[in-house]
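Cross-posting from the chemistry board since nobody answered there.

I work mostly on the small-molecule side, so proteins are not my area. We synthesized copper (II) ion and want a rough idea of how it might sit in this target. Sequence and SMILES are below. Is it possible to get a predicted 3D structure of the two together?
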Amino acid sequence: MASAERTTETREHSRIRIRSDVAITRGHMRRARIVLAATAVAWAAAPRLVDGAPAVTTEHARVARTPEMLRQPPILRNMSSHPGVVEVTLTAAPTRLQLLPAGPLVSAYAYNGSVPGPTLDLREGDSVIIHFRNQLPEPTTVHWHGFHIPADADGSPLVPIAAGTAHDYRFRLAKGSAGTYWYHPHPDRRTRFQVSMGLFGGIIVRAPSDPLTAKGIPEKLLILSDNRFDSGGAIAFPHATSLAGGIDLENGREGNVLFVNGQVMPTIPIRRGELQRWRIINASAARVYRLALAGQRLVHVGNDGGLFERPVEVPEILMANSERLEVLVRGTGSPGDTTVLEDLPYDRYMPQTRPADWDRTLQVLSSRCSTATACRSRSAAGRIRGTCPSTRRSASRSTSTIIQENGCSTVISSITRTTG
Ligand SMILES: [Cu+2]
């Protein structure tokens, strides 16, 4: 993988396919050295680059002016009637979509016609069959990011699916694998391009008993991505030997418009006092997010490995590419009040290619308090606590204790799973 493409990958890739990564990386590093040499003169003349770097804040703010309610990606339809078997059809194909609010129809790649692709909703222990059809004009694969499955089913670059052909992916999910995952292409040298063209989707693996679901806490799937567009609204890729192409190679291709489920700065309605579980996936090719909820602390309850034993209350969470996290968010304030999920500045750049506006905070989405429910809440590390007239106490079989919210109040001191 090229150095820029490697930024779409996580530690999991490194663990699972060290040998193939090393081989691919060497080849790409040779190409990277050639490109870097070709642009060295220009870089020397522009020690703090502005021209060629994406104007992140300006463009994102410009297109984020028409807020709309957050949509959930469609769920892939299970065609099997056998318990424990999930059989779906997934097609990657070129299409034309409106990617920018009020923007034109532009060329994109999509799974089953949508960006993000449909969500794969699974359970631990499921036998999964994915009938994949590659209608792209180039080879691709589908990689099930985070799954511990046989290498030949995992969509590696070593098992490409040729243009115009089909392939069945088959695997079984292990017990204890509940969590949030995602899928994306992983062809040799084209991962960055195909993901940027729109090929990515979410995966949820559910446990037989999920303490948060059991308590009726509603959940949202939030797939974060970014992209870059030309003046005509088309997805923009600089030439590999251009200055911007060299920057992409060094920094990874970072977009100047941020999306959640393909929407720019959408709104999530939340009742006052309501607790929501947000499953967040960083499907951006290179962007590292420092997520913070303005005016609130985040209650971090899970990551790539599923739910934690106990929640952790934090002011912000650093989220690298391909990482997943789960947080609990409470509706606060008066009806109509909004709380903004922000991407705080994170300096991961080489000085000569650092975007001029890297230190600006970006708005990712907002949650809007929708109805009045009188609640006063206070928080402490490891628990969420609120006060309301009446609460119902329930205890799981393990050490976890959850006081179920009755209208508005919830205390969670532990979220240990009680799977049987
Ligand atoms: Cu991946």
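Reply from a structural biologist on the board:
Welcome over. Reading the output above for you: The chain has a mean pLDDT of 80. The pocket of copper (II) ion is lined by residues 9, 143, 145, 184, 322 (CB under 6 Å). Happy to explain the token format if needed.
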